[in-house]
Amino acid sequence: xKKLGRDKEATERLTNLFACGGxxxxxxxxxxYFAISLPNFLLFNDDLAERNVIQCxxxxxxxxxxxxxxxxxxxxxxxxxxxxxxxxxxQNILTKIEV
Length: 99
Fold this sequence. Notes:
By secondary structure, the chain is mostly helical. It has helices spanning 7-25, 38-44, 48-66, 70-83, 88-97. It is 70% helix and 0% strand. Helix 1 (7-25) runs antiparallel to helix 3, helix 3 (48-66) packs antiparallel against helix 4 (70-83) and helix 4 packs antiparallel against helix 5. The chain is globular.
């Protein structure tokens, strides 16, 4: 949107993304037994609460980066990697930011 000159809309959406990530951090995560990803969860014994925290910090980092708040974005991406060192997207973004 920014490349299209729609700065106000881009800022609004990124701000909403950041806020949604914060709200989702407070959610009580439970297994949805009808979810199509349930077999993966059972197979790999994943921690849903931790996975939620990782995803929320990633989204908040993306939002902060889009808003131009690099320092805040870095903090969120580092939290992601502290919980999941193999998070490829966070790794890629960090290498681009820290260069």
